[in-house]
Each structure stands twice: as C-alpha cells, then as structure tokens.
Amino acid sequence: MSSLILIADDDAESVEALDACLRREGFRTVVASDGQQAADLHAALKPDLVLLNIRLPIRDGWDVLGELRRRGETPVIMVSDLDLSTNKLQALRIGADDYVVKPFKPIEVVARAQAILRRSNGDRSTKVLRVGPLEVQLENYLAAILTPAGKRRLDLTLTEFRILAHMARVPLRVFSRAEIMQACFPNQDVLERTIDSHVSHLRRKLDAADAAGLLTNVRGVGYRLEAEF
Q: pTM of the entire structure?
C-alpha cells in the first residue's frame, strides 16, 4: 500500500497543485483545511507524512505540530508564506523534519517528502511489526488493522499490547501460555487462565476491527498469529 500524506492547508490553489503532484507520484492523500481537522485526521488515519501550513484556521500549525510530536514521530514538513530564520529554527526545535516556503514548485516538495519517507522507513523498519493487516508500532505502543478504508486503531490495554507485540515478532509460531507468561509477565505469579482471559479480550478487539481469524487457538498448545487468513 502506498504512503498516505496529509496536506493541512487552507490555500485551495496550493492544495490542488500539491495533491495532483503527489498522486501522480503514487501517493495517497487526504486534505485538512484547518488545524483541528488536521489533528483529527492524523489521529484517525495515522498518515505516513504531514505537510503542515503554519497559518491555519482554528488551530495554527505550531499548535498542531506540538500535538503530533506528543503523539509520536510522524514526519512533518512545515509550510510557510514567510522565509524567516526564526520560523525555521522554531519548526526544527519543536520537531519538524523540513521547512518549505511558498511559492514553491510542487515537484520539489514531493522530492523532499520522498527523501524523508525513505529515511523514516529505514529508521522504523525494526520498530514496526506487520502481520497480514496488523501493524504494531513498538515505540509508540500503538496497534492498528489496515483496511481498504484506512487504519483502524486497536484500543488495547498495556498487557494486551505486550502479548500482541510478542506474538507479532514471530508470526505463525505457536506460543504456549507459559511462554507468554515468561515474556509478558516476568517475575510475576500469573495463572494460565489469566493469560486466556487477556487473549480472549484481545481476540474480541481484533474481531471487531475486521481481523477475525488473525489470532487463533491451537488446542492443547497455545496461541498464534496467522500471517494470512
């Protein structure tokens, strides 16, 4: 699946040009016309990169950038009408990956986005696990199911996340309850039926996210994640 880029800008002409150029290069796009919508779409869709204008209605780009950084490490390119060194320094200090000034050539912005995504994907390759439609972000403690309509985030407890991440490291392997206890509950006295309870809750959440059959029970042995189902 191609990378999803969120364009957060209320300048319709600029958005149209960027959107067309990004799509020609094979990216998927989604557009937000104000800061609150940008924050909401980021939370819902988990885009791979954000093009974020500083001057946005309702919530400005600085405020949105701060929230995105509190959530995680989604790459962000800040967009501004002003070529000010103070703005560039502030953007980098808060955590932006790049800073571009209008007017710009859309193809140049696309080239910057491609370079950032290449670096980002390389850095995250060992920090993101994928099993079929399941994506587990180890650093951010986030898990989601990839669907044709976008990512469906799983609302997991810390224990459920640990179990899911542990199993996602070796899909198709059957994990005994004892192995799960040792890996996820070190130095704790946990009953096997407690593991069954956590796995049962986890499986219901996967089923509700259109991933029924991803987590299976191997009778008399334990549990496994199916790479295909």
A: 0.55
